[in-house]
Specification:
Shape: globular
Structural class: alpha/beta
Order of helices and strands: HHEHHHEEEHEHEHEEHEHEEEEEEEHH
Largest sheet: 8 strands, mixed
CATH superfamily: Metallo-dependent phosphatases
Helix content: 25-40%
Number of domains: 1
CATH topology: Purple Acid Phosphatase, chain A, domain 2
Number of helices: 12
Strand content: 15-25%
Number of strands: 16
CATH architecture: 4-Layer Sandwich
Length: 419
């Protein structure tokens, strides 16, 4: 309600008199003892009590998203595709991996099992004619580095396909690539000292140790007797235990690549489950299985103290030109390493895998790797596997066959079909 002009003037006069009286007395109310509570009593108002308690913010968790792939198996027909993509001069492997590039680049750390050596002084080989000898051109490395992989494991049975000189050349090749591109390379070593130099990569403030072991090297063990080159095999459990425990002391997380198992089967052998349990008990947080050329199951393993590790028994093939239907279905391991910001404890979250399909058509043409989410019944019907030469044993393929393979190999709770 607005005051009329006369009443407003009167009110103003009263206010001025009050103010003048206060000044004339020379007294500031409530300032004699600097007590805000007394001020509030005198003025009839309430002043909140002061608090000295400081608000605290909990430190954030550290998170590393990890993706890992199985065998990068460069068969002759894979190289033929790359040569044609390069116009007949050299090799261009990059288009073969283009459909999964977004998944690899989305990871903070991406791990690949490089199944074949790269020895530039030897003729490239891709198991043509049924002779299981491999040697890949250097363009393979360029492609998978461009794809986004930054950790490469080499512990596999094909390490000596080009002899000890070829292995040494391949190790030196990858060591140069590591320096040039900030990579982590392991699994085959120049000497014992190199083998005991545990690789640790720090990502997002988390130190991750990487180790890699091979079940066998195709019976060529004697070739290593007279050279300093070193490959640690799965039966050297004393070495593996020592290395995992040492890695546990110098890193926040430990990832082990295990090249093991019988080829072309989805059955997980008892010796692998036993070794996996030992590795986890010794301190491995994640085991990345390779070698069987088939996608296999995975599971949590509980330690005696109640904590857990996780094992992918086999991720199958990343790329290949094999001709049994189970050989063209692989897994991209996909999980988060989380270090609790308050306790510093490690946990694994969002653990699972993304099914992948190596697609090719008539005479191994139009080869590409697809994630399940980008594959389709139409592509499955065009797959060249039923007509491939040499012909495999399990030659049926189609959308239903693909899903049957996934249903058998990958537990439902770990399937990531929409990534």
């Amino acid at each position: 309600m607005k005051l009329r002009k006369g009443r407003a003037a009167g009110a103003l006069a009263v206010l001025l008199a009050i103010v003048a009286g206060g000044i004339g007395c020379g007294t500031i109310v409530g300032k004699a003892n600097n007590d805000p509570q007394e001020d509030s009593k005198a003025e009839g108002t309430t002043v909140p009590e002061e608090t000295t308690e400081e608000q605290t913010t909990l430190p954030p968790d550290k998170v590393v998203h990890v993706t890992a792939a199985g065998d990068n198996l460069i068969h002759h027909s894979v190289m033929v595709n790359a040569r044609e993509l390069a116009g007949g001069s050299g090799y261009d492997f990059k288009p073969l991996y283009s459909e999964v590039k977004y998944l690899i680049q989305d990871a903070d750390v991406a791990v690949l099992n490089q199944e074949t050596v790269i020895s530039e002084s030897n003729e490239v080989r891709g198991a043509e004619g049924g002779v299981l000898i491999f040697n890949s051109p250097p363009e393979v490395a360029d492609a998978v580095i461009d794809l986004g992989f930054d950790v490469f494991t080499m512990a596999n049975n094909h390490l000596l396909d080009m002899g000890t000189s070829g292995l040494e050349e391949s190790i030196n090749f990858w060591n140069r690539k590591a320096v040039e591109n900030d990579l982590t390379v392991l699994g085959a070593y120049l000497d014992e000292e190199d083998a005991n130099n545990i690789r640790v990569r720090e990502v997002n403030g988390v130190k991750i140790a990487f180790l890699a072991y091979a079940e066998h090297i195709n019976g060529f063990d004697a070739l290593l007797d007279d050279v300093p080159l070193r490959v640690i095999k799965n039966d050297e459990e004393d070495v593996i235990e020592r290395q995992i425990k040492q890695a546990r002391q110098i890193a926040d997380a430990v990832i082990v690549s295990a090249h093991w198992g019988a080829e072309d089967t989805t059955i997980v052998s008892e010796d692998r489950t036993e070794l996996a349990n030992k590795m986890v008990e010794w301190g491995a947080d994640v085991i990345l299985g390779c070698h069987t050329h088939t996608a296999q199951t995975m599971e949590w393993i509980e330690r005696d103290d109640g904590t857990k590790g996780f094992v992918y028994y086999s991720m199958g093939n990343f790329i290949c030109a094999q001709t049994d239907n189970f050989n063209v279905v692989g897994e991209l391991a996909d999980f988060d390493i989380v270090i609790d910001g308050t306790t510093g404890e490690l946990r694994l979250e969002d653990v699972g895998c993304i099914p992948t399909i190596v697609h090719y058509e008539s005479e191994f043409s139009n080869m590409k790797i697809y994630p399940y989410s980008k594959y389709s019944p139409e592509l499955a019907e065009r797959h060249g596997l039923p007509y491939a030469v040499p012909q495999g044993t399990y030659t049926d393929f189609g959308w239903d066959v693909l899903n049957d393979i996934i249903d058998e190999a990958i537990p439902t709770e770990f399937r990531k079909l929409d990534k």
